[in-house]
Amino acid sequence: MLDIIKTIEGECALFVVSGWLDTLSAPKLAAALDESLEGITSLTLDLEKLEYISSAGLRVLLVAQKTMNEQGEMKVIHVSPTIRDTFEITGFVGILTIE
Amino acid sequence: MQKMRSSMSFNIIGAIVLSLVALGLIVSSIGYINFTNVFKKEYSLSTYHMADTATTLVNGDHIDAYLAGEEIEEHQTTQRYLDGYCKKMSVSLVYVIQVDRSDYGRFVSIFNSVNNAVDDSNYTPWELGHARDTTDDEYRQKYQALYEKQVPYETVYRTNPADGSHPHITTMVPVMNSAGDVSAILCMQRPIRELQEARRPYLVSIAIATVLLALLASVFVAVFVRRQFVAPIRKVSDEATRFARENIKGTPLGAISTYEELACLAESIDTMETDMATYIENLTSVTAEKERIDTELALARSIQENSIPNIFPAFPERPDFDIHASMTPAKEVGGDFYNFFLIDDDHLALMIGDVSGKGVPAALFMMVTNILLSERARAGNQPAEVLAAVNNLLCNRNKLDMFVTVWLGVLELSSGTLVAANAGHEYPAIKRVDGAFELLKDKHGLVLGCMSGMTYQQYELQLEPGDKLFVYTDGAPEAINADYELFGTERMVAALNGNPDGSPQQLLESVSDAVQRFAGGAEQFDDLTMLCVEYRGCAKTARDGEGA
According to the model, what pLDDT value does residue B2 have? Predict the structure, then answer.
């Protein structure tokens, strides 16, 4: 349902997240972020192949954003129109950095 | 159980007894045969010696002379000696014959002594020259062997005579002449009564010994088998049966046998009982716990259902609007909510929300949010203010980073003016009286509970009598079918427009049916909540023509 490809170079982390991010798969992403964010100052999430995100998935992004607000920066890239819609409806466009 | 014991012991004892009897039979047969053989040999040898001795009484040179009628005196003397010898030796017959050497098929009698008293027989002595045929081939071969000097003597055994006479043997020795040739054959017939008489006690003693041994062995085996095997096995079997019936641990079997297999079996039964008892205990408590949880969840669901207005029609006395709403959680309790109430006679508050997640955590958060929003709205605050205030309150105590999307509106019933604000919630759908349902892309603030200090923008809508407003949670557009396709807002709007003149209740049903048909058999993925209000505006006419 959900695939995560992690690349860490020094203090920069790139997560390519693809598939279906819902209540069942959100914990997987949360765990992956949890174990890698220590000492990272720049986190990028590539959501090009993300097909769906539910409120559980939004929560994981929210937690990541709050964490990165403390230690550096986070941005979300290659967001598809559907996902962008979701960010707009929920107002997450206001708190995420979308490129 | 009784059946098992007797048949196991019975079989073992039966087998032992049969083996012993068979053994006894074999041993006695071998003994019998050996006994007979030895006896026969001994008889034969001693008879040979007796016969051989008798030949010294016979003059081998005068055989032909006797037959010719010469040497009569010598013949009679010899005959007398032979008679005496026959009596003294206790043999039935002593006779001397001359056999026809061409084919040994005939012979003539030279001497013949009979002693009928020995064996209770009734032979008549042959006179000199009496001719006879050789009795059978056996005799013929033996005569030949003797005449040709192949053997020193021959014996014919008649241990079970066919002619009814008693068992006897006949030993034959050659009578030599001075030239060293065989001139006649001396035969001695001797009864072997003693053999028969000796054999019988032998057989009897063997039989008695076998029977006694068999009896003894069966008694021993019975006791041994019962004590060593049957009793322990029975104990194990009884215990297993009892446990299967009662499912309660009993007294352990412990060490019931020194045999490894049986000891192992008993140990296994004891271990199994202990394990089973523990398992059953665990299972019982787990099941009880589950039942308790199920009961509590059912109660929680009930509380949740009753915390939002769920009696319809909700305001039957109000002709100026019609409202209907439904909430269907995916699990026993859910994170969606709606609420509506009259703030005062002229203002209807409407709200709908969706907490991130499902189940008990979302339900608790939902209850808090519902209460906070309702109280703020009841106090008469503007929607934007309400959202901002509640947002801060939720952010305060939000360790788990839960958030909730909310749409909140206040409808002034006298004028039809709707003031609303949206905190990250789905776009509402509006149907104007002479149009179709369309999504209204209202301004969105951030979801509640995410970040404190956020501000929200409210907007105004003017509703005309006959206009309908439909708000929902993402359980509708995000319903999935077996192919993981989303229902989507287009299908939802289409379902609404499929029944444009329907009442709020009918519109909700149309959407709900459409979602169910789309989902097919797939399990409901998310909570599904909808609220629809139709503005009728009749209150205007009812109120002394205020406004127009």
Answer: 56
pLDDT tens for the 99 residues of chain A, in order: 889 999 988 889 999 999 999 888 989 999 999 888 888 889 999 999 998 888 888 888 988 998 888 888 999 999 999 899 889 888 888 888 888
A91:B403 CB<8 A: no
Helices (H) and strands (E) in chain B — how many of each?
13, 16
Predicted confidence at residue B545, as pLDDT, reads: 47
Which candidate, B310, B296, B423, places its Cα nearest to that of B360? B296
Measured CB to CB, residues of chain B less than 8 Å from chain A are: 354-358, 401-403, 405, 423-427, 444-447, 450-451, 454, 474, 478, 484, 486, 526
Contact state of B445 with A91 under an 8 Å Cβ cutoff? yes
Q: How many CA atoms lie within 13 A of B373 on its CB side?
A: 33
Sequence-distant (≥ 6) Cβ neighbours of residue B322 within 8 angstroms: B313, B503, B504, B533, B534, B536
Q: Please, is B357 exposed, middle or buried when counting C-beta atoms within 10 Å of its C-beta (0-12, 13-18, 19+)? A: buried
* B403:A66 CB<8 A: no
Name the one residue in this structure whose structure tokens are 């589950």.
B290
What is the reported pTM? 0.60
In a 3-state reduction of DSSP, which class is residue B86? helix
Q: H-type helices in B340-447, by residue range?
A: 359-378, 383-396
> Half-sphere exposure (CA, 13 Å, Cβ side) for B195?
24
N residues, chain A: 99
Using 50 as the pLDDT threshold, list the residues of chain B that sit under it: 539-548
Is B423 within 8 Å of A23 when comparing Cβ atoms? no
CB contact under 8 Å between A89 and B427, yes or no, is yes
- How are strands ordered across the β-sheet holding B429-431? B321-328, B528-535, B468-472, B429-431, B437-439
CA angle B258, B261, B264 (to 5 degrees): 85
| Bond into B313 cis (ω within 30) | yes
Residues 6+ apart with CB under 8 A from B178: B60, B61
- What's residue B106's pLDDT? 93
- CA gap B355, B337 in Å, rounded: 8
Chain B residues in contact with A95 by the CB 8 A cut-off are: 446, 450-451
Give the residue from B363, B357, B371 showing the smallest Cα distance to B447.
B357
The widest CA-to-CA distance across chain A, in whole angstroms, is 35
In chain B, the residue whose alpha carbon lies closest to the alpha carbon of A19 is B484
Chain B residues inside the 8 Å CB shell of A91:
423-424, 444-447, 450
CB neighbours of B366 closer than 8 A, spacing ≥ 6?
A: B304, B334, B335, B336, B337, B353, B355, B404
| B contacts of A20 (beta carbons < 8 Å) | 484
Nearest residue to B307 via CA among B371, B356, B351: B371
Bridge-partner residues for B528, per DSSP? B328
